[in-house]
Design a protein that fits this description.
Layout lengths: L5 E10 L6 E11 L4 E6 L5 H9 L6 E10 L2 E2 L5 H7 L4 E4 L13 H8 L5 H14 L5 H4 L9 H13 L5 E5 L7 H18 L2 E6 L2 H7 L2 E6 L2 E7 H6 L4 H8 L47 E3 L5 E3 L5
Parallel strand pairs: 3-8, 3-9, 6-7, 7-8
Antiparallel strand pairs: 1-2, 1-4, 4-5, 9-10, 10-12, 11-12
The chain binds adenosine-5'-triphosphate, iron/sulfur cluster and magnesium ion.
The site of magnesium ion has 4 residues, from α1.
Length: 317
């Protein structure tokens, strides 16, 4: 295949109806190339999980796609039937959900989850693949684990099982939602090693959704920044951390000393994100907190620079 693995093109998604319509994504744009690792970073509630669930085709029934396209290997995913969509899941795109244990069915064993994830594969082969995948992700006694129920797994083990399930079919794009959230530094490091092992397993691309700037800096080839439902900057990780171009991205980095802390621990930047139910949301969701705002910000253009950074801003830094 040539061309990007994933293109999210001006995707808008809302939950619920007026007056409580939450505009979770507003013309979000993102591209993932084969084999690359992209970190989608943003404060809590900025729309990271909504974007990922739209890509994998598992949006909440309360969500409505209001515009835009999702191309997976060039195919218009939003135009596919539910059956065609399901066929892409696991094989082309796999996802480890934000809540590791909550993502597992409490009444089904780990082995039964693998049978579902590898639907159509002979049982004996399922057991082989499951054991090998769990072992590569550092799970002790993987055969015995196949009989475990989700409540018998520690949070760390549930996370490994979630990753193993997401990678069982060696998807070309692995999406991982908040892999280090709530972990101490040592567990976060171990989880990163796991992720690397999972990627070595798939040989594919990865989209990691995270509050954690340190994770993004260490792990990603490229970074995309979300601000209240809008993607405002995408850039090679090195260029981004050396010189963010969007004022919101710069404020995020400036408020994270030594990038040691996750974004949800930070004090909100100058007053917090706007309420996504508001009918009068500004064209740039950072406008009410931005010192550079002027009339041109009513229609912020995308511009790019020689470092490969692209920014949606009337006055990039
Ligand atoms: N099922 C839902 N029904 C209504 N609103 C929702 C639903 N899921 C998410 N939202 C809202 O959509 C917005 C984006 O949420 P989302 O979970 O995508 O953000 P996030 O960046 O993943 O946040 P976090 O970092 O906390 O996981 C938020 O305002 C959230 O409250
Ligand atoms: S578009 Fe305008 S308000 Fe928004 S970040 Fe850029 S300068 Fe600030
Ligand atoms: Mg989330």
């Amino acid at each position: 295949m040539s061309g990007p693995l994933l293109v999210v093109d001006d995707l808008s998604v809302a939950y619920g109806a007026c007056p409580m319509r939450v505009r979770a994504l507003d013309a979000a744009r993102l591209t993932v190339e084969p084999g690359e690792t992209v970190a989608l970073i943003g404060e809590s509630g900025s729309g990271k999980t909504t974007l990922a669930l739209a890509v994998i085709g598992l949006l909440d029934p309360a969500a409505r796609v209001e515009g835009g396209r999702i191309l997976i290997e060039g195919r218009d995913a939003l135009g596919l039937s539910p059956r065609e969509r399901a066929a892409l899941r696991g094989r082309i795109v796999g996802m480890a959900l934000q809540s590791a244990r909550g993502a597992l069915n409490p009444s089904r064993s780990v082995g039964a989850h693998f049978v579902d994830a590898l639907e159509g594969t002979p049982r004996a082969r399922v057991a082989e693949i499951a054991e090998a995948t769990l072992a590569r992700l550092g799970v002790d006694e993987p055969r015995a684990r196949l009989a475990s129920l989700p409540h018998e797994l520690s949070v760390g083990l549930a996370r490994r099982v979630g990753l193993a399930l997401a990678t069982a079919r060696r998807p070309r794009l692995l999406i991982v939602d908040e892999p280090t959230s709530g972990l101490d530094a040592e567990s976060a490091r171990a989880t990163l090693a796991l992720l690397r092992a999972a990627l070595a397993e798939t040989g594919g691309a990865c989209l990691v959704l995270t509050h954690d700037l340190a994770l993004a800096e260490r792990f990603a080839d490229r970074v995309a920044v979300m601000c209240a439902g809008q993607i405002v900057e995408t850039a090679p990780a090195r260029a981004f951390f050396a010189r963010p171009r969007h004022p919101y991205a710069a404020a995020l980095l400036a408020s994270a000393p030594a990038r040691a802390r996750a974004l949800d621990d930070l004090s909100p930047i100058g007053g917090g994100a706007p309420d996504l139910c508001r009918a009068d949301l500004p064209a740039c969701r950072f406008a009410e907190r931005c010192a550079r705002r002027d009339a041109a910000c009513a229609a912020p253009p995308w511009t790019s620079d020689e470092q490969g950074s692209a920014t949606r801003c009337a006055h990039p830094l």
